[in-house]
Amino acid sequence: MIDLDYLAFLENILTENRKANFLKVLENRTKHFTVAVEDVYQMHNTSAVMRSCEVFGIQELNVIEQRFGKRIDKEIALGAQKWVDINRFDSVSGCLSDLKSKGYQIIATTPHEKDCMLEDFDITKPSALFFGTEKEGLSQEIMNNADGFLKIPMVGFTESLNISVSAAIIIQSLTNRLRRSDVNWKLSEEEILVKRLLWAKNSIKDIKRIEERYYQDNPRD
């Protein structure tokens, strides 16, 4: 349960403009779609995907680091790590199991012939969109466990796009369609409260000291 008194206390520290921006952004956030990236060697690509998630309203990014343990490149993410939830996994199977348990269908983004075109993709089902590297693509484990496949229509000679580019195109297209649909895609009231509290904490300098002082003055039962 969210401590509403504590939330009100923290939001009192914020400017009215900051609080209004939080509500405006949260109004457009969704967990109906989530994004997963697998073993992306170049750190800036994962960071760029995170930035696209933040810009287009995807609340959660799942990062599989089975081979390459990497930190998020803050220069590329440009602060997006404050506003997007990062779920880290050290195995493909762990990530797949977690997402399936949450009710997501697994969608592999690949350029194969039998894939569904982006504009034809069914947006009504909660979907986890998996992206691999430009060179190697997604692992066979993900391909074998995929419930569907998705590709971007291309008319040039080049057969694939950089992961950060393809992710941005797909996320923008699907979230734009989602917001124009009748699908119940928004965060729940409880999820919004959780994000308001976390974002308030992320916005306040010396939050640990402020938090300690608050609970000294307002001891928990």
From TrEMBL:
Its EC number is 2.1.1.34. S-adenosyl-L-methionine binds at residues 109, 152, 161. GO terms for biological process: methylation. The keyword Heme does not apply. Keywords: Methyltransferase, RNA-binding, S-adenosyl-L-methionine, Transferase, tRNA processing, tRNA-binding. It is an enzyme of class 2 (transferase). It catalyses: guanosine(18) in tRNA + S-adenosyl-L-methionine = 2'-O-methylguanosine(18) in tRNA + S-adenosyl-L-homocysteine + H(+). GO terms for molecular function: methyltransferase activity. CDD domains: SpoU-like_TrmH. The keyword NAD does not apply. Residues 33-171 form the tRNA/rRNA methyltransferase SpoU type domain. PANTHER family: RRNA METHYLASE-LIKE, TRNA_RRNA METHYLTRANSFERASE SPOU TYPE DOMAIN-CONTAINING PROTEIN. Belongs to the class IV-like SAM-binding methyltransferase superfamily. RNA methyltransferase TrmH family. Catalyzes the 2'-O methylation of guanosine at position 18 in tRNA. This is tRNA (guanosine(18)-2'-O)-methyltransferase. It comes from Flavobacterium chungangensis. The gene is trmH.
